[in-house]
Amino acid sequence: LLESAWKLYENENVIKLVDGSLDHEEYMPEEVKRIIEIALLCTQSVVASRPTMSEVVVLLLSRNSPEIMPTRPTFIDSISRVRGETSTSSSSSASKATVSISHLSAR
């Protein structure tokens, strides 16, 4: 989802992130862009670059776009590379995880 959101943001097409069941008259495209920018700020690779929750609240209550623009998290590029490598690979591997659950009861 995050990778798709970034692609849409970079292509200036964030309006496609809006729920299709909403009427186009129920929101403003500028507002959608501003909220997506705030959300993307919360996904920055460097934790110190992310806004605190109180800063997010201030940003959401403000009518202005954030002063700092989000940057694409580096882990998205890693995910894309891994997907590209695995999609071209002809062999696959899998593992099966097992879990034991114990229930203790008093006498």
From TrEMBL:
Keyword match ATP-binding: yes
UniProt keywords, alphabetically: ATP-binding, Kinase, Nucleotide-binding, Transferase
Family matches, as Gene3D superfamilies: Transferase(Phosphotransferase) domain 1 (1.10.510.10)
Organism of this sequence: Aegilops tauschii subsp. strangulata
Keyword tRNA processing carried by entry: no
Protein name per UniProt: Serine-threonine/tyrosine-protein kinase catalytic domain-containing protein
GO MF annotations in UniProt: ATP binding; kinase activity
Chain positions covered by the region annotation Disordered: 79-107
InterPro entries the record matches: CR_Ser/Thr_kinase
Superkingdom assignment: Eukaryota
Residue stretches of biased makeup (Low complexity): 86-107
